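ARCHIVE CARD
CATEGORY: sequence design from structure
SOURCE FIELD: tokenized fold
FIELD CONTENT:
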């Protein structure tokens, strides 16, 4: 691609070889003719054929760029590195397992078009989750606790599909798992956020890389840290004289 895209779609992946091609096809189908875009895949040092599948797609998909971590670093780092490498002023993120529907990206773009400039994050809200009962229960419990502690007015921070301004994102403090707290972090930075109902689908192939216990143990520590950041944050307006 030679011109600067208006939108960069960032997709972090780890061991998703069979989900790569269908998702790339869906992204291009959803966005060609809608906006100028690029697709930035960040491979978190997959151990299967994910990287080879991505490389094979590049010849037929000029919008596709592929980055690879030298060492496995996690989803938040993959998202951040993808955003740093992105050329678009706005970023859309998707999980690499195919459960997010790329057809929802135009819906988020339309919501941005009708919103005031201070809205910098449009977060997907999975109103009909297609996960196991235990996973839905754990997510509901975690969202309730997070909402009570952070008061971020966001029903679903775990949804992978989001649209946000690149410059605003890069202002945020970086830490592992930060992608789960973007509404609270954006609000801490003085921006407004809104949740938008989106589609959610069963995983096509492969297995989830997380379990409920791991999420809970990590989440307790993260919540305390984000709550501390919010308490210690200080915003002030400046005027150039």
């Amino acid at each position: 691609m030679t011109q600067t895209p208006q939108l960069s779609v960032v997709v972090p992946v780890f061991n998703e070889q069979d989900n790569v091609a269908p998702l790339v096809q869906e992204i291009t189908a959803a966005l060609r003719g809608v906006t100028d875009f690029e697709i930035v895949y960040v491979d978190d040092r997959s151990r299967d054929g994910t990287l080879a599948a991505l490389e094979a797609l590049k010849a037929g998909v000029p919008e596709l760029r592929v980055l690879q971590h030298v060492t496995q670093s996690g989803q938040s780092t993959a998202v951040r590195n993808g955003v740093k490498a992105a050329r678009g002023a706005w970023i859309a993120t998707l999980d690499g397992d195919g459960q997010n529907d790329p057809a929802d990206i135009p819906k988020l773009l339309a919501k941005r078009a009708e919103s005031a400039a201070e809205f910098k994050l449009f977060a997907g809200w999975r109103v009909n989750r297609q996960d196991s009962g235990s996973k839905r229960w754990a997510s509901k419990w975690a969202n309730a606790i997070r909402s009570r502690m952070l008061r971020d007015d966001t029903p679903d921070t775990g949804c992978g599909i989001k649209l946000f301004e690149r410059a605003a994102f890069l202002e945020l403090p970086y830490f592992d798992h930060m992608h789960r707290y973007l509404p609270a972090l954006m609000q801490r930075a003085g921006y407004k956020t809104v949740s938008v109902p989106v589609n959610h689908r069963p995983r096509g192939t492969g297995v989830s890389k997380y379990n409920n216990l791991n999420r809970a143990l990590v989440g307790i520590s993260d919540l305390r840290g984000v709550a501390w950041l919010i308490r210690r944050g200080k915003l002030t307006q400046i005027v150039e004289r």
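CARD ANNOTATION: Helices lie at 17-31, 50-58, 75-85, 105-113, 133-150, 166-171, 182-188, 212-232. Strands lie at 7-13, 37-43, 64-68, 90-93, 119-126, 162-165, 192-198.
SHELF: design records, drawer C
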